[in-house]
Design brief:
About 20% of the residues are buried. This protein has a single domain, classed as Creatinase/prolidase N-terminal domain (Creatine Amidinohydrolase, Chain A, domain 1). By secondary structure, the chain is an alpha/beta fold. The longest helix is centred in the N-terminal third of the chain and has 11 residues. It is built from four helices and five strands; from the N terminus they run αβαββαββα. The mean pLDDT is about 85.
Length: about 100
């Protein structure tokens, strides 16, 4: 993770308790993940830093970023253990909301 102070400042100025970065240039800026197309960064001050990446980019992300949990997702339904995918793209928003509710956000 890079520039967490900047993320903290953005969250504070907007009066929000968490940030979900979806634009690939923002994801790259804060994680340095090369070619982050389709990746989403969930950042909660004092909480999780979670990077959701397409399953095919999982190992590249694991070897490229530090300080964040990398979670692969698939754009189609496959058996849960296949590629280690636990999240399906169409369920991604619900997964993020569940995570935030669990944190009391």
């Amino acid at each position: 993770m890079y520039f967490e102070g900047k993320l903290r400042s953005i969250a504070s100025s907007r009066g929000v308790e968490a940030l979900l970065l979806t634009w690939e240039w923002n994801v790259f800026y804060f994680t340095r993940l090369p070619r982050p197309s389709g990746s989403y960064l969930l950042w909660v001050p004092g909480g999780p830093r979670r990077l959701y990446v397409p399953a095919l980019d999982y190992w590249r992300a694991m070897n490229s970023v530090e300080g964040v949990e990398v979670v692969p997702y698939s754009t189609y339904r496959i058996p849960g253990a296949y590629f280690g995918v636990e999240v399906i793209y169409e369920d991604l928003a619900a997964e993020v909301v569940r995570e935030l509710r669990g944190l009391g956000v």
